[in-house]
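Changelog note: in this version the structure field was regenerated for every chain. One regenerated record is shown below for reference.
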Amino acid sequence: MASNKSQRRLADSSYVALPGSQRELLPNSRPAGSVDPDELTSVTVRVRPQADSGALEKQMQTIYKQPLAERQYLTHEKLREQYGARSEDFDAIEKFAVQHNLVVSHRSAAERSIVLTGKLGDLLNAFHADVHMFHHSSGTYRGRRGEIFIPRQFAGVITGIFGFDTRPKHKSPHHTRGVGSKGPGGTNGLAASEFAKRYNFPTGSNSMGPVNASESLNSAADSTIATSRSSFRRLPSTYRTSRLFRSITQATIRHVGAQPTAK
């Protein structure tokens, strides 16, 4: 249950709900009391971009349709200038933070984020949220449920606030798979023809005959294997039969995409 003070905050008509901020507790969480309002902590406030993010997506699609040699990618500076945060948005949030005894510990136009640091009680006075302590099988955590409420003046300016909730981060299990066991394609990578299509490699023909990425890669592999066999024949017979050399030779051949063959 939210405290009376929290309920008053959430009912403040000068505040509006932050879209997309709805959150639920971890399943089977048990109340562990109120938070410490004097705890020093930080929240990251993310703001709107200067230009519509949809314009950036269209621009990138246009770039990827061009031939590889003619593409001109956005530099970090251009990306920040066109799609970074607006300085006036940062200035307004910083002024608001000072009024609530908060300090700006990080500010990045490229990341469109500003980090506010101070006492947890002051942060909750600035941005209203239902935050309490909870016990869980993964450990005790500071949990938030429901929506975050921001001053009406920042509606459409602030797009996210992160840091009130300290629940343990979920780690995905790492799946291992055999590399090289199935060759190109499938779950082991891309076929050469698909790779060439994705990066607009040239196709057609030239003075040497047809140009085909898959054939070129296979030709390079055959050349490497032939060179290895030629070098092998020039070595002394005692070294050619050693276990160490056979292991090295097999590994080299497998590396270029083929299995060793007896000849």
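Spot check on this record: The radius of gyration is 30 Å. The longest strand covers residues 141-151.
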